C-alpha cells in the first residue's frame, strides 16, 4: 500500500519538477517490485486529499500536457499490479479535476480510481484492508505511523549494496573465503594449448 498525504504535495511542487516526480514514481515502483508479496498481491494507493491545494498541479515546475500523459502511460506500462487508487476527504473541486485527467487514463485504470469523501469505512473495505492497517489520518486506527519507514529502509539497503560493491571492486584483498580468484585457482581449470 502506498499512502499519499496530498496536502504535503504543496511543498514538493515548489522544489521538484514533474519529471522529478515521475522519476521518483518509477524508482519507488521498481523498489516495490522486488518484494515478492507486492509481486503477488499488487499495490493499492490511498490518498488523503484533505486540504489539497487547488493550484498545486498548476504550480508544479515543468507541468505540461505531455508530462501528465507520461505519468498515466507509466502507470499503464508498469509491470506492477495496481489494484486501486482510492481518495478520501477530497475537497469539492477534486471530482472536477479528476474528470479533466480521466481521458488520459486507460479504461482499466479509470475503473480502479474511486473517491470516498469522509466514508473511510467504505474505502477501507474496498481496499480489502482492516482499520488497524490504516493510519488515523486516512480513517483507520493505526497510531504513530512513520510514513518514511519504507524509504529509509530502502535507502539504507541501497547504500549498503553500493558500499559492498565498491569494496569488492576497489579492494583486491579478500579473505580466502570471499576471494573469487581462489575458486579459479583450486578448480580444475582447462589447459590451454597453443
Q: What is the CATH superfamily?
A: CRAL-TRIO lipid binding domain
Count of spatially separate domains: 1
By DSSP (H or I, 4+ residues per run), the number of helices equals 10
Strands ordered across the widest β-sheet: 1-2-3-4
CATH topology: Phosphatidylinositol Transfer Protein Sec14p
What's the helix-strand series? Answer: EHHHEHHEHHEHHH
Percent of residues in beta strands? 5-15%
Distance between the termini: 61 Å
Percentage of helical residues?
40-55%
What's the architecture in CATH terms?
3-Layer(aba) Sandwich
CA radius of gyration is 23 Å
Main sheet characteristics:
4 strands, parallel
Low-confidence residue ranges: 181-194
**Alpha-beta classification:** alpha/beta
Q: State mean pLDDT (0 to 100 scale).
A: 78
The gross shape turns out to be: globular
Strand tally is 4
Structural account:
The chain has 194 residues and is α/β, with parallel strands linked by helices. The chain has a single domain (2-154), classed as CRAL-TRIO lipid binding domain (Phosphatidylinositol Transfer Protein Sec14p). The protein has helices spanning 9-15, 18-32, 36-41, 56-59, 65-77, 94-101, 107-112, 120-126, 149-170, 180-186; strands spanning 2-5, 43-48, 82-88, 113-115. A 4-stranded parallel sheet has the order 1-2-3-4. The longest helix has 22 residues, at 149-170. It starts with a strand and ends in an 8-residue tail after the last helix. The model is unreliable at 181-194 (pLDDT under 50).
